[in-house]
Design goal:
Layout lengths: L9 E5 L3 H13 L3 E5 L2 H5 L9 E5 L7 H10 L6 E5 L4 H9 L4 E4 L4 H33 L3 H10 L5 H8 L3 H15 L4 H11 L11
Parallel strand pairs: 1-2, 1-3, 3-4, 4-5
Helix pairs in contact: 6-8, 7-8
Length: 215
């Protein structure tokens, strides 16, 4: 079998059938994945903190909290992990509900081993992209927070389309001072152009400040 692209990925398996858990662990291990197994949704939710799994292979029918219940609980607590549902019964309403709630795949037991591995590969790739996007967003917020309050105000006015002389008039400061602040904003935000800075502001949700008064 082809080795997975992400050797650090962890696949969580939640199924109340021990033979299924062990069978899945064996399949994943032979494909080069690291797997963690859980007998119930509650056991999975109680797992020690730390890095979240990259993918969840989840049985639909579970004692206590069902697979769908766990999916809802994860959404409530912001645990964003691609989910692949497994079920021993063809349940169209449940599959529709799961997919609408964001499940990546819904497979019926007995499942095709290669189909499962392909679904897991897809899930891990999706999770990696999501983590990269979250990390990039955290870094962008950190750059913005590194600006002084006045630099943040200047940035908000710059991305609103105001010229330096207009910003200077708003804050009752010189154009030269605005240029200094503007240069600091571009440097700290690592923006290569005004268009680049505008895109960053859009991601940060910064609103137009054209009519705002200086503090």
């Amino acid at each position: 079998m082809r080795e997975p692209r992400d050797s650090e990925a962890v696949i969580a398996i939640v199924d109340d059938d021990l033979s299924v858990r062990e069978g899945l662990r064996s399949i994943l291990r032979s494909a080069g994945w690291t797997a963690e197994t859980f007998a119930s949704a509650q056991e999975f939710l109680a797992r020690p903190g730390g890095e979240a799994p990259s993918c969840l292979v989840l049985d639909l029918q579970l004692p206590g909290l069902s697979g769908l219940d766990l999916q809802e609980r994860m959404a409530e607590v912001g645990l964003e992990i691609p989910i692949i549902f497994l079920t021993g019964h063809g349940n169209i309403p449940a599959s529709v509900r799961a997919m609408k709630a964001g499940a990546l795949e819904f497979l019926t037991k007995p499942f095709d081993e290669q189909e499962l591995l392909q679904a897991i590969q897809k899930a891990v790739e999706r999770d990696r992209r999501a983590r990269q996007q979250h990390a990039a967003m955290r870094e962008l917020r950190a750059r913005y927070e590194s600006l002084t309050p006045r630099e943040q105000e200047v940035m908000q006015h710059v991305v609103s389309g105001l010229l330096n002389k207009q910003i200077a008039a708003n804050f009752h400061i010189t154009e030269y001072t605005v240029k200094i602040h503007r240069g600091q904003v571009m440097r700290k935000m690592r923006a290569e152009s005004l268009a680049d800075l505008v895109r960053m502001a859009d991601k940060l949700g910064i609103r137009s400040q054209t009519n705002s008064a200086p503090r």
